[in-house]
Design a protein that fits this description.
By secondary structure, the protein is an alpha/beta fold. It folds into two domains: 7-175, Rossmann fold, CATH 3.40.50; 201-280, no CATH class. The protein is 42% helix and 14% strand. It contains twelve helices and eight strands. Strands 1, 2, 3, 4, 5, 6, 7 and 8 form an eight-stranded mixed sheet that branches. Strand 1 (26-32), helix 2 (44-48) and strand 2 form a beta-alpha-beta unit. Helix 8 packs across helix 12 (253-266) and helix 11 (236-246) packs across helix 12. The longest helix has 15 residues, at 7-21. The structure holds guanosine-5',3'-tetraphosphate. Guanosine-5',3'-tetraphosphate binds next to helix 6.
Length: 285
């Protein structure tokens, strides 16, 4: 589902997330492994504050494994726990509750010492639209339970989902807005399908994508479209013209651009990652 973000909506979203944060012990910040930074909410650190956090790099099946490894190291170096998953295939998902228990060991032991028999952890997923929050949530859950609130702020209809005996998740994820103010971020989010097709120009996103694959994954691009050395030596704009002709679109270059976007999302150029931690050097957080 796509959400139109206006200042009022952003304030409301932020308030909703902050209310829910009071109910949980830790946060699962879900991002798209192809664009770990571009798919983060710009105010995430402020909003989440000191609450323990696991960075969940989702859609790892679509991302470049080597770059995913770099991002995991990057987040761990910042003091977060971090894990890469493919939420569509639940295999490694149980590592999330394990990781959470490991991270919250001190708290759990304190609770045990106080005589609480089955100390549990409560968590929530937060992220921008389309990163896979609902998929992660649904795959983690084994059964639905209604927990009556003995904590401040727990409303009667607050539902918790049970992942296992000691790990519970808030039933709805926290949804925050992406970084729209940056054109490069916009291109990345559009190319990966995180923002609606109606809100960007296919020709510029397609051109961005083509230039990216030409530079970063030339073999994959060459193979996907049967390109030769001369084609590959062209500027992205000229290559788009060549492609458009090859695809039978003539001078309807926007159709070639749309095809490039479609093909990238479908994985025709293989797994890819649009940014690496080094790109952030010199950027302010
Ligand atoms: P959200 O709650 O954060 O908004 O995201 P949601 O779970 O709805 O997931 C957004 C899209 O991403 C869905 O596809 C979902 O199937 C897909 N997705 C989620 N996790 C993964 C993953 O690990 N790998 C891959 N490849 N895809 C993932 P959709 O196109 O909206 O729907 P559909 O194609 O599943 O019908």
């Amino acid at each position: 589902a796509q959400i139109q973000w206006f200042p009022g909506h952003m304030a409301k979203a932020r308030n909703q997330v902050q209310e829910k944060l009071k109910l949980v012990d830790l946060v699962l910040e879900v991002v798209d492994a192809r664009v770990p930074e571009a798919s983060r909410n710009p105010m995430m650190n402020q909003i989440v504050g000191q609450k323990p956090r696991i960075m969940v790099l989702n859609k790892k099946d679509l991302a470049d494994p080597q770059k995913t490894a770099e991002w995991l190291s990057y987040y761990r170096a910042q003091g977060f726990e971090a894990i890469a998953i493919d939420a569509q295939h639940a295999k490694r998902l149980q590592q999330i509750p394990q990781l959470a228990r490991q991270m919250m060991k001190a708290k759990l032991e304190k609770q045990k010492a106080r005589g609480i028999r089955n100390p549990g952890l409560r968590a929530m997923c937060i992220g921008i639209p389309n990163v896979g929050k609902s998929t992660v949530l649904n795959r983690l859950v084994k059964k639905n339970i209604a927990v009556t609130g003995n904590r401040p702020g727990v409303t009667k209809n607050q539902q918790w989902l049970k992942s296992d005996e000691t790990f519970m998740l808030l039933d709805t994820p926290g949804i925050l807005w992406p970084k729209f103010e940056d054109a490069l971020v916009g291109n990345k989010l559009a190319l990966t399908g995180a923002i609606a097709d109606t809100v960007y120009q296919a020709d510029s996103v397609g051109l961005f994508g083509l230039g990216f694959f030409q530079r970063e994954y030339p073999q994959a691009l060459r193979k996907a479209y049967g390109l030769n050395d001369d084609d590959m030596a062209q500027t992205p704009a000229d290559l788009m013209v060549t492609l458009s002709q090859k695809m039978g679109f003539g001078e309807e270059f926007n159709r070639a651009a749309e095809r490039v976007i479609f093909d990238a999302r479908q994985g025709k150029f293989g797994p890819f990652t649009l940014e690496v931690p080094g790109d952030l050097d010199g950027h302010a957080e």
